[in-house]
């Protein structure tokens, strides 16, 4: 599954892990996260995330 990175603080959302603090279950694709979800590290919204490609 595609990971996404916060452009503000570099937090990486990994769908395999989810976000337990944000009540996002492991296995949840980024596209299915509620629009009001916030980055657990800096508090920005989904708009400030972009696809993360490990190279």
UniProtKB/TrEMBL annotation:
Annotated coiled-coil segments of the chain: none
GO function term, MF aspect, one: iron ion binding
Entry keyword set: Electron transport, Iron, Metal-binding, Transport
Names of the cofactor(s): Fe(3+)
GO-annotated biological processes: alkane catabolic process
Residue span(s) of domain Rubredoxin-like: 1-52
Comment on bound cofactor: Binds 1 Fe(3+) ion per subunit.
UniProt key word Transmembrane helix: no
Pfam families associated with the record: Rubredoxin
Binding site for Fe cation: 6, 9, 39, 42
Keyword Magnesium: no
InterPro entries, A to Z: Rubredoxin, Rubredoxin-like_dom, Rubredoxin_dom, Rubredoxin_ET, Rubredoxin_Fe_BS
Family matches, as NCBIfam families: RubredRD
Assigned protein family: Belongs to the rubredoxin family.
Name of the molecule in the record: Rubredoxin
